[in-house]
Amino acid sequence: MSDANQLRIIEAVSQALDEELARDDDVIVYGEDVGIDGGVFRATQGLIEDHPEQVHDSPLAEAGIIGLGIGLAATGFRPVPEIQFQSFLYQGFHQLQQHASRLRSRTRGTLSCPMTIRMPFGGGIRALEHHSDSYEAGFAHIPGLKVVVPSTPADTKGLLTAAIRDPDPVVFMEPTRLYRASSEPVPEGEYVEPLGAAAVRRTGEDLTLISWGGMVRDTLDAVEETEVSADVIDLRTISPMDIDTVVASVRKTGRCIVVHEAPRTAGMAAELVAQVTDEAFLYLEAPVERVTGYDVPVPMFAREEAYLPDTSRIVTAIERTVGF
Amino acid sequence: MPRSTTAEFTIDSIRILDKDGSADEDLVPDLTDETLIDLYRQMRRSRRLDERAIALQRRGELGTYAPAIGQEAAQVGSAAALDAGDWIVPAFREQIVYLMRGSPMHKILWYAMGMEEGAEIPEGSNLMPPSIPVGSQALHATGIGWGKALRGENAATITYFGDGATSTGDVYEALNFAGAYDAQTVFLCQNNQYAISTPRRVQTRAETLAQKAVAAGIEGIQVDGNDVLAVYVATTEALEKARNGNPVLIEAETYRRSMHTTSDDPSVYRSAEEEADWEQRDPISRFETYLRSEGVLDDNRIEEINAAIEAELADAIDRAKEGQSEIDPVDMFRHTFAEMPPVLQRQLAEYKVMRDE
Ligand SMILES: Cc1ncc(C[n+]2csc(CCOP(=O)(O)OP(=O)(O)O)c2C)c(N)n1
Ligand SMILES: [Mg+2]
User: Fold this and answer.
1) Do A297 and B336 touch (CB under 8 A)?
2) Alpha helices for chain A (secondary structure H)
3) Which of B197, B198, B332 lies closest to A306 in CB terms?
4) CATH value at residue A293
């Protein structure tokens, strides 16, 4: 692969959007400040110049943004709205839960909602209050909605392209702290990474670690530090989850740790523990551990380091699980 | 008559000081020199806090900060019209309003240092904490104003939000509820012409934002938001109406002269000419010109005021840094509930073990 397409996550988002806008006139990108400003993180920079008919600044109203997308999607468009920060999708939650996710089911398949809602999420960038939430479990609790979380530039391009082309609504959660973290070669031109498939970032024998988004790097670092022989699974699609990959790995290793930054109670780790218990119970040699945020509102940035799982917390969990 | 006009509306607008600082004497409110000077002082205090905060942020000592440079008249003029018993429900740009209610300046800095302590409200100050989710707080103000009506109390409530916020369902609902429930609430919309990069005309095709009151059956009025006297008068009148169960929406036309927040670069979306034009209409220099011409303010007095503000700032920065160096992460476990549930007690214990390792 050429160095020409060496991208960070933020640029991979732009490239996927640019290529899909060019490929399909029905793709509509809109949201607060996505036009001349290029979005507050610059994910949509330059798109309005190249696709003026398809890129639109919106009034400040998330319920409206999601609601309009349902109307567009039901009538043949491929809306790709941006929500400025994940927390503000709460303002559009009823549209998501009551309509977007179940238009297909309610109309017995006559109408559908192929909308992709993009948004930054998660902590680690010293942001303001209400800018660091990680609500993937809440979205995953909505039947009919897909939830995707990339952690690498190449996946970002491939998964976002797949999401836009997907026949169902997708919440696409971009880990803010990785937007500009590092670059890697990303395939040029058409590149689709199927939804619903986890990626195994590292393989080993004694332990399975599962994480996604902003936590994948810390998880890999912790494995590096402990020199444990471990599978590290980047879940990538939170819902519907790639349970086969998870179960196969845990049956092999017999030990499992799930890492996420969201609060622990009713977080996605709880679901993973349940699935692992269902399908790999007899293979387990230790309790499945959860390394997560705490059950408190995500603190403002002076305390976010204490809240967010980090390498040392993951290392502790690894030692406990392996030594069980 | 098969077709007739069943409703019509007009929107009034108030200005007392024009942009070169000369006043319409018929409209000037009857305020003492000391009150006039205090309006000036509060505006300077707001401006200097913002300037220092931006500089501190640039040095990495603060996180994201939302300055109100250019909007001082809209904020100070309205807050000065309140009684101590009135409630205030701010958005996220009204630092001076907290200070005017007696909240110490170092707390503003704490909030920008990412410390929950910065959102702590002094006991009995009738303030709500800053509200970052745009428009959401307007409903709280309607609730407070309704509660005052239910209890038969005389106090009013004021809430602050921006032009962008008027597009949210929450603000429409707040206005409508206020009308339906006779809430004792004043809605102070600072139309600073932008919601981040999005200009006012992209938010709505409505000719004024004040007219959004009309559909809710309440009064809407525009005021020159860079004229502290006009804002003071408009808010005083609105509060009086609100105390009698007649809520009012005030659209204060102003301009955010600085960046949206320290993370924003306005040169991407607006011209230097536009900024220069609004600099000519700056609320502080306009008022200063007026006060000097009235003989209320002179160089000596201004120097005194500035020196006091600089001293307050220096002290606030020291206290903020001192508090910052003492923060205990364990605090994040407190205050989630009145009583810490067992599941959280376990997590706290787990956290402490880890921290002490
Ligand atoms: C519900 C919600 N959506 C988006 C944002 C991100 N955001 C913060 S301020 C802002 C613009 C607000 O504009 P306006 O209401 O005019 O107030 P101003 O910033 O001009 O004071 C946006 C989009 C937010 N904080 N809350
Ligand atoms: Mg505004």
Assistant:
1) yes
2) 9-23, 47-50, 62-74, 93-98, 103-106, 136-140, 153-165, 216-226, 243-253, 268-280, 304-307, 311-322
3) B332
4) 3.40.50.920
Which atom in ligand 1 lies closest to the alpha carbon of residue B92? 21
> Atom 19 (ligand 1): residue with closest C-alpha?
B195
Nearest CA in chain A to B354: A313
> Tell me, what CATH number does A9's domain have?
3.40.50.970
- Which residue in A has a C-alpha nearest to residue B60's C-alpha? A126
Q: What is the pLDDT of residues A250-299, one digit of tens each?
A: 999 999 999 999 999 999 999 999 999 999 999 999 999 999 999 999 99
Of B65, B31, B36, B60, the C-alpha closest to B50 is B65
Do A119 and A99 have their domain in common? yes
**What string of DSSP letters covers A169-196?**
-EEEEEEGGGTTT--EE---S-----TT
Q: Which of residues 162-221 of B touch A (CB under 8 A)?
A: 164-165, 167-170, 195-198, 202-204
Reported as a single tens digit per residue, the pLDDT across B250-279 is 999 999 999 999 999 999 999 999 999 999
Give the torsion sign (CA, A72, A73, A79, A83).
positive
User: Is B256 in the active site?
Assistant: yes
| pLDDT value at A2 more than 70 | no
Measured between alpha carbons, how far is A102 from A31 in angstroms, rounded to an integer?
A: 23
Are A183 and A225 part of one and the same domain? Answer: no
Cα–ligand 2 centroid distance for B21 (angstroms): 25
Q: Are residues A127 and A210 in the same domain?
A: no
d(CA A62, CA B168): 8
Gap between the Cα atoms of B11 and A19, Å rounded: 47
A169 and A107 in one domain? Answer: yes
Nearest Cα to A300, choosing from B258, B92, B301? B92
Which residues have CB atoms below 5 A from the ion given as ligand 2? B 162-163, 192, 195
CA A253 to CA B77: how far, in whole Å? 68
CB contact under 8 A, A61 and B169: yes
Question: pTM (2 decimals)?
Answer: 0.97
- Per-residue tokens: B197: 């990069």
**Which residue's structure tokens are 């958005």?**
B91
Active site residue A131: yes
Residues A135 and A234 grouped into a single domain: no
Residues of chain A in contact with residue B135, where contact means CB-CB under 8 angstroms, are 60
What DSSP string runs through A55-86? EEE--S-HHHHHHHHHHHHHTT-EEEEE-SSG
| Statement to judge: residues A21 and A170 lie in one domain | yes
**Structural domain boundaries enclosing A208:** 199-322
Domains in chain B, ordered, with CATH?
A: 12-326 (3.40.50.970), 331-357 (no CATH)
Report if residue A193 sits inside a domain: no
- Give dist(CA A111, CA B40) in Å, integer: 60
Taking an 8 Å cut-off on Cβ atoms, the answer to whether B197 and A36 are in contact is: yes
Q: Are A44 and A34 in contact (CB under 8 A)?
A: yes
DSSP state of B120: P
Q: Which residues are within 8 A (CB) of A232 and not within 5 positions of it... i.e. 6 or more apart?
A: A200, A201, A202, A209, A211, A216, A219, A220, A223
Segment B229-255, tens digit of pLDDT: 999 999 999 999 999 999 999 999 999
Q: Does A173 fall in a domain?
A: yes
Q: Find the ligand nearest to B64 CA.
A: 1
| Positions of chain B with pLDDT under 70 | none
